[in-house]
Amino acid sequence: MTARVTTPFGARTTAAEVVAGVDLTGRRVIVTGASSGIGAETARALAAAGAEVTLAVRDVAAGEKVAAGITAATGGVRVRVAPLDLADRASIAAFTAAWDGPLHVLVANAGVMASPETRTAEGWELQFATNHLGHFALTTGLHDALAAAGDARVVVVSSVGHLNGEVLFEDVNFEHHPYDPWAAYSQSKTANILFAVEAARRWAADGIAVNALNPGRIASTNLGRHIGEPTNAPASYEPGRSNGVSVKDIEQGAATSVLLAASPLVEGVTGKYFEDCQEAEPHRPGVRRGVADHALDPSKAARLWRLSLELLAAAEQRS
Q1: Which helix (H) or strand (E) holds 67?
Q2: Which residues are part of the catalytic machinery?
Q3: Which residues contact 185 (CB under 8 A, 6 or more apart)?
Q4: DSSP for residue 3
Q5: CA–CA separation, 22 vs 15, rounded Å?
Q6: 235 burial class (0-12, 13-18, 19+ CB within 10 angstroms)?
Q7: What are phi and psi of 234, to 5 degrees?
Q8: Does the pLDDT of residue 186 top 50, yes or no?
C-alpha cells in the first residue's frame, strides 16, 4: 500500500497560497465553468502564476468579464474565453476540434447540482450528462493534446455528495427509477471519481495524471441555484450542519483544484481523490468526509468507461 499523499496546506488555505512561488509560464490550461465561483478563482490563481488560461464557459459574456478582471489583476497575463456547453455534444466537438497544440492542464470544474428533472436532446439525465458525460467527451477528445504535453494533469471536481450514492449502471438516466435530484447528483459525483481512476490507469503511459477532489462546501456560488431551501437534501447541505465537511469561501474552495493542477508537491500523483489539499482518507460512517469505496472500485471505473463510450457512440449513430 502506498503512503497517503499529504501537503502542508489545509482546509483554510487559499488558491493563491497554494500557487505562491510556482511558475507556470508556458503551461496551457483549460478551466471549465470558469465564469463564476471556484472555477473563476481557479483560473485567476493559475493565470497569476503565469499560465495561459482558457475559460471554457456557456456564458461567453460572463466569461469575458472574468477574463478582463484576471488580466487587469495579473498585469496582462493572456486569458482566453471559448464557448462550451457540456450538455451539447456539438459544442464539445467544436471546442475540441478548435484546440491546437499541447494542453498541460484541464480542470473539469463545471457542474450542476440537484436540478429539476431535465433531459438533454439525447434523453440523458442532465446532471449525469453534464457533470460526467460532457467532461468525459471533452477530456477524451483532448487526449492527444494532453499526451503531447508529456506531463499533463487532469483535475476533476467531484463532491462529498458522492458518499450518498453509486452509479446506477442499469438506469443512469432514471428512466425506471423515480427521479431524485440528490440521487442523480450523487451518481454524477461518484462518476467523476471513477472517471479519474480509470483515466489514470489508461493514460499513465502518456504521462497524464488524473485526480478528483472535493472542494468543500462553498455557499456563495451558482452551483446551488436549484436548491432554494433544501428539502430531502443530504445532511451536508442542511443549514447549520457540516458533519465534517469543510465550509469554505471561494478562495479556499479553489485551493485543492489549484494544488492538483499546479503544485510540484503532487507531481506524479494520479488516480486519487483529494479534500482539503490532502489525499482523502477512507470514509467513516456518520462523517461527511473521506472517499467511499464504491468511488475507487477499479472494476466499476472500467465499467463506467465502457458505458460512457457506448452512450456517446449510440448518440452519434442516431444523429
Answers
A1: helix 60-74
A2: 185
A3: 113, 114, 127, 131, 159, 161
A4: P
A5: 12
A6: middle
A7: -60, 160
A8: yes
